[in-house]
Amino acid sequence: MPSVVNDSCKLCKSCVEVCPVDAFREGETQVVVSPDDCIDCGVCIAECPEGAISNSDDADAKWVQFNAEKAAIWPVAQK
Question: Would you say residue 40 lies in a domain?
Fold first, then answer.
């Protein structure tokens, strides 16, 4: 179950810093998780100060879809 970012993300990118596989993609106002690259380690969930990240089983379906769609077109987030 990959991690999923919701709209509480403030683009602080602390999650990007701890991700061991560069699964985050960056838009203008937030990051999302690529479900194809996420290894389900959960490190980012604990790191997020906004509580904007959860696993896909606990996330609203619209955020699961949003992350997948945006991850396909946004660039890899820079650390």
Answer: yes
